[in-house]
Write a structure and sequence with these properties.
This protein is α+β, with helices and mostly antiparallel strands and 598 residues long. Helices cover 52% and strands 11% of the residues. It has 20 helices and 11 strands. Strand 8 and strand 9 form a beta hairpin. It is elongated and about 180 Å long.
Length: 598
């Protein structure tokens, strides 16, 4: 705007207007003979009243040109400031997208931010998925709407030119639609108005953008609906949408395309991470299953311990009172705990199979060998006495033979009964239970008790080595075998340490191989103190003991009843072996129910 002033009153009015508008210039015409105070800094030009029209016109042209330059400069600065803000917003959005680890939250974030930067009232998001037969399709994954509550249900549609989303996924091109209800006659696709009819909505302007990876793979499409001048606008009626919704500009299109590229990378990375996690999860499960197949009697133990341990960690997270409120595990720590629990018996791969599956004191087949040996001894005794009876008849005839026969048969019966009793004692001693104190001396006598056969050979039912095995006071392993077996936790650490764990899982080897330690220092293999044992391991200790007590799949022992198992945990707590707070939490929260049969 340009104002020309001649009098003081006009000048005052002009300067007042200029104070209110940046784009206004004042030209003052004065009488050279008249003295006056002129605010030169606020006036574009001061000219004499009798200036020639040509010069005046040139001055006014210059004033208009100055105003135009000022407007252009300000507009450029506004554009630069807006561009800087948009770039900043896109960068911030990119940071949030790349940092989000939850896929569902990531999808919500992609669509909400796309709507935000394009001032869209609503939006939908479709993901490209591959079927079992290799065919590709779009899954309707998400819908958002500021103004109306639109019914949402997931469904799939083909990647074809039948729908807007399918067409964009097929071509990889952005589609900017002025009016969804008035498509150009050449449009290959149609807009599904069923959602509008269900919710009383009106989709007008639409912007469909493909999410394309750097490898030019389209992994999704988001549709933005109804661009509005005021981002805070909430529409009440469909007619209001008709009146106030505007078309998407080129700037909106560019912003949406930029965000779509970032979203595609973030989603692709998230899917890649999830596929790697699934691959690793499958590898871990397959490895543990294969390792546990070496010892079928404990199959399923590792997975049950993991279920119990995770349940106990989650119970600690839920607790609000002391001392539980001081214990908290993050989502990543829960994952670390779960893997450490599953892999806590990974060491079985390094234990000799005969020790690993040894259910009783003697190795499988050994008892049958002793049975056969006892039968051979019995047959030898019977043959020996038969031979003696024959010799008696040949030497003395039938004189007093019946008396001799009765005496001989009584001796044979006593010997056979003695051997049968020995076998029963041996069978009882072979069980991995707590052995009575006098059993060891009985077995020692059996090992040195000899029986002579018909050839004069003297044999024993068991050897001293077998007696030593049968004299194991508790369990099924000798001291040497138990030392070998207990060394398995060292194998766990050695094996797991070879895996290049990520930063958030790097403590798995340490957590897993300490599960046989005890807080009172009486565990193995390192006899750690309480301060040296990770709290994650303390969780596994409780779960491992409980499952070992209550497992119903052990042929060499009966499952301990639930109440007795919980009492044993309490005993261990009182002995200082287990964390008291965690034992109480395990029992109070009934964590054990996660693996108990209904």
């Amino acid at each position: 705007m340009l104002l020309i002033a001649q009098s003081d009153r006009e000048l005052s009015a002009a300067l007042e207007c200029k104070a209110k508008s940046r784009y206004l210039e004042v030209v003052l015409l004065v009488n050279p003979a008249k003295e006056s105070t002129i605010p030169v800094g606020e006036i574009y030009a001061v000219l004499p009243e009798n200036i020639s029209p040509v010069y005046l016109a040139k001055t006014l042209d210059n004033a208009y040109a100055h105003l135009h330059l000022l407007e252009e400069r300000d507009r450029t600065q506004e554009d630069l400031a807006r561009l800087a803000n948009e770039l900043r917003d896109l960068n911030l959005i990119g940071i949030r997208l790349s940092g989000e680890q939850n896929t569902e939250v990531l999808l919500e974030l992609i669509l909400s931010k796309a709507r935000e930067i394009t001032q869209s009232d609503a939006g939908t998001l479709y993901l490209v998925e591959e079927g079992e037969d290799g065919s590709r399709m779009l899954r309707f994954a998400l819908a958002q709407n500021d103004s109306f509550d639109i019914p949402f249900r997931q469904f799939t549609l083909p990647i074809s030119d039948e729908s807007l989303a399918g067409y964009v996924a097929l071509t990889g091109e952005i589609e900017n639609i002025v009016d969804a209800y008035a498509l150009p006659p050449t449009s290959p696709f149609q807009i599904n108005q069923a959602f509008d009819r269900q919710g009383g909505y009106r989709s007008k302007s639409m912007l469909a953008v493909p999410m394309k990876t750097p490898q030019n793979e389209i992994i999704g499409v988001f549709q933005l609906i109804n661009c509005k001048l005021d981002p805070k606008q909430r529409f009440i009626t469909a007619s209001e949408i008709e009146e106030k919704v505007i078309s998407y500009s080129t700037r909106h299109q560019d912003l949406a395309a930029s965000l779509a590229s970032q979203a595609a990378v973030a989603l692709q990375n998230r899917r890649l991470y999830e596929s790697i996690e699934a691959l690793f999860e499958g590898f871990v499960k397959a490895s543990v299953t294969a390792i546990e197949s070496r010892d079928p009697t404990t199959a399923g133990h590792s997975f049950r311990v993991a279920d119990l341990t995770v349940g106990l960690a989650e119970a600690a997270n839920r607790a609000e009172s002391r001392p539980y409120c001081d214990i908290h595990f993050s989502r990543q720590e829960i994952k670390e705990i779960r893997y450490a629990s599953i892999l806590h018996h990974f060491d079985k791969v390094g234990v000799r199979e005969q020790v690993l599956v040894k259910a009783k004191k003697l190795y499988p087949g050994h008892i049958e060998l002793i049975r056969q040996r006892a039968e051979l001894i019995k047959q030898g005794i019977e043959l020996k006495y038969s031979q003696r009876k024959t010799e008696y008849l040949l030497e003395r005839g039938r004189e007093r033979f019946e008396e001799h026969l009765a005496r001989e048969e009584a001796e044979v019966a006593a010997l056979l009964c003695e051997i049968d009793e020995y076998v029963r004692t041996i069978l009882a001693a072979n069980e991995p239970t707590v052995m009575p104190e006098d059993t060891s001396s009985v077995l020692h006598r059996i090992a040195f008790r000899t029986f002579e056969d018909h050839r004069g050979n003297r044999r024993t039912v068991i050897t001293p080595e077998e007696a030593a095995y049968l004299s194991i006071p508790m369990g099924s392993l000798t001291t040497e075998e138990r030392t070998h077996f207990e060394s398995h936790v060292i194998h766990t650490y050695n094996f797991l340490s070879q895996i290049p764990w990520t930063k958030d899982l790097k403590r798995i080897p340490e957590i897993a191989w300490s599960h046989h330690e005890r807080l009172n220092g009486r565990g193995y293999p390192r006899k750690l103190s309480a301060a040296q044992i990770p709290i994650q391991t303390e969780l596994i200790m409780i779960s491992d003991i409980f499952d070992a007590l209550t497992a119903t799949d052990r042929p060499y022992k009966k499952a301990v009843p639930l109440e007795r198992a919980l009492n044993i945990l309490q005993d261990e707590k009182r002995a200082g072996a287990l964390n008291p707070a965690l034992v109480d939490l395990f029992i109070d929260e009934k964590v054990y129910q996660r693996v108990m049969a209904p």
